[in-house]
Amino acid sequence: MSKRRKLQKGHHTALPFEEVPAFIAELRKRSAVSALALEFAILTAGRVSEVVECPWSEIDRAKKVWTIPASRMKAKRDHIVPLTPRMLEILDAVGPLRRGVYVFPTFRADKHLSDMAFSALLKRMGVKATTHGFRSSFRDWAGDATEFPREVAELALAHSVGDATEAVKRRRRFTSPRIGLNTFK
Q1: What is the pLDDT of residues 19-36, one digit of tens each?
Q2: Among candidates 43, 37, 57, 40, which has minimal Cα distance to 113?
Q3: How far is Cα 33 from Cα 175, in angstroms, rounded to an integer?
Q4: Alpha-carbon gap, residue 171 to 151, rounded angstroms
Q5: DSSP structure class, residue 67
Q6: Residue ranges of the domains in the chain?
Q7: What is d(CA 185, CA 183) in angstroms, rounded to the nearest whole number?
Q8: Class of 17-183 in CATH
Q9: How far apart are CA 115 and CA 5, in angstroms?
Q10: Is the pTM of this model over 0.90?
């Protein structure tokens, strides 16, 4: 028998990173929960499920971090996301809508925003990109427009970098306030 071929999903359509600020400016003209959640996803470089299924218990406003537990992560490791002032503003905007455990709720208290809300919003806005594609936009920006090492960009996307020992050391170093990751906007 021949060797089993690996299935490929293909690339997710992304906006060129240079176009993302204009897109976000248009997105900010909308007040819907889905628009706020999509901006949060873009700014955090988070996966759709990580954002829409985010409970308030993962947000630490005092430390200005969002800690996604390993059980919700693709790589099955905790992921710490520094929260910028704009991310905190988004959390403030959805705070009054709090009806249950989820940061981005639907009209029902026990339900989180649908993972299809973003694709529907992008379609209404006439944007030919996917939510996951914004992670590619982030990676292109980090690689082409900043001086951050490749490993920092990969860790921000919650991708595996090096062996387990190296990854732990790098996570400690890159989440340290001394390098200013909280300055991302």
Answers
A1: 999 999 999 999 899 999
A2: 37
A3: 29
A4: 10
A5: E
A6: 17-183
A7: 6
A8: mainly alpha
A9: 29
A10: no
pLDDT tens string 107-144: 776 788 988 999 999 999 999 999 888 988 988 888 78
Q: What is the dihedral of CA 32, 33, 35, 41, to 10 degrees?
A: 180
CA angle 143, 177, 94 (to 5 degrees): 85
Structure tokens at 16: 């060129």
* Tens-place pLDDT, residues 53-105: 999 999 999 999 999 898 987 878 888 999 999 999 999 999 998 888 999 99
Bin 46: left if φ > 0, else alpha if -120 < ψ < 50, else beta. beta
Q: What is the CB-side half-sphere exposure of residue 33 using CA atoms within 13 A?
A: 20
Question: How far apart, in whole angstroms, are the C-alpha atoms of residue 166 and residue 114?
Answer: 36
User: For residues 36 and 94, what is the distance between their CA atoms, to the nearest angstrom?
Assistant: 8
How high is the pLDDT of residue 169?
45
